[in-house]
Amino acid sequence: MIELTKGIELDLEKALPELVAAMLGMGWDVNKDDNPDTTEDDFDLDASVFMLNKSEKLPDKHHVVYYNNLKSPDSKTSIEHMGDNLTGFGGGDDEVILFDLRKVPDNIHKLVITVTIHRAQERNHNFGMVENAFLRVVDVSSKEEVLRYDLDDEFSLETSVILAEIYRTDTGWAIKALAQGIDGGLNELGSKYTA
Predict the structure, then answer these.
(1) Where in this chain does the record put each TerD domain (predicted)?
(2) What's the CA gap between 117 and 9, in Å, rounded?
(3) What confidence score (pLDDT) does residue 34 get?
(4) CA 9, CA 99: separation in Å to the nearest integer?
(5) pTM: predicted TM-score of the whole model, two decimal places
(6) 51: helix, coil or strand?
(7) Distance between CA atoms of 151 and 29, rounded to whole angstroms?
(8) How far apart are CA 2 and CA 40, in angstroms?
(9) How are beta strands 2-4 and 145-150 bridged, if at all?
(10) What 8-state DSSP symbol labels residue 143?
(11) How far from chain centre, in Å, is Cα 190?
C-alpha cells in the first residue's frame, strides 16, 4: 500500500499500473475532546467529485457527483456516489465513491475530490471539529487497499477541504494530495469551477 502526504504527486500508471476501477473511501470522526456537546448525529460531511475539462471548469452542473447527483452524466457512468452518510458514525468508510478511469470521457481532464460540511454555517461547524479524516483507494479487482491519505493537517474555521486531484498526464492518470481548506460549502466550490 502507498501512503500519500500533502503535496505529493503520484503517477498512477507507474505506481499502480493495474488500477482502473477503484473504490474511493472517506472517513472521519468528531473531535469529542474539543467539542463535548457535538455528536456524530448532527455532524454531516459530504464527499463530492468535480469533473473538470481542460480549462479546469465544469462542463455543466451535472459534472458534480455528490449526494444529490449520484452518477456522472456520461453513458458509461465513470463515477458513482454510493449515497449520503448523514452522521459519519462508526469506523471504516463513511462515504464511498466508485470510479473507473477507463470510462472517464475524453473531455474530462481532472477529477477534484472534496469534502464539505453540510449546513456548516447554520450549525456552527468547521473542520477544526473533525479528526482522524482519511481518503483511501481500494482496487475493485483485488479488493486490496492500494493507496491511503491520512489528513494530519490542523484545520480551524474551514468548512470545505479539497482532498486530492486525479488528473490526466501524457501517459495516463496521476494523483496529487492537497488537503486545501476553503471557507464555504458546495456552492462556493462549484463557483470556483464554473466557467
Answers:
(1) 2-193
(2) 26
(3) 58
(4) 19
(5) 0.87
(6) strand
(7) 12
(8) 29
(9) parallel
(10) -
(11) 14
Residue 154: burial class (beta carbons within 10 Å; 0-12, 13-18, 19+): exposed
**Are the C-beta atoms of residues 161 and 180 closer than 8 Å to each other?**
yes
pLDDT digits (tens, 9 = 90+) for 131-166: 888 889 999 989 999 999 887 766 777 888 898 999
pLDDT digits (tens, 9 = 90+) for 59-103: 999 999 999 999 999 999 999 999 755 444 445 677 899 999 999
Residue 1 contacts residue 148 (beta carbons within 8 Å): yes
64-65 β-sheet, strand order: 9-11, 173-182, 160-168, 110-117, 45-52, 64-65
Nearest to 182 by CA among 164, 149, 157: 157
Enumerate residues 6+ apart whose C-beta is below 8 A from 4.
Answer: 10, 147, 148, 149, 164, 175, 177
Those residues whose C-beta lies under 8 Å from the C-beta of residue 130, and which sit 6 or more positions away, are 28, 29, 30, 31, 43, 45, 155
The answer to whether 49 touches 64, Cβ cutoff 8 Å, is yes
In the chain, what are the domains?
2-192 (2.60.60.30)
Mean pLDDT of 122-129: 78
**Between β-strands 21-30 and 45-52, what pairing exists: parallel, antiparallel or unpaired?**
unpaired
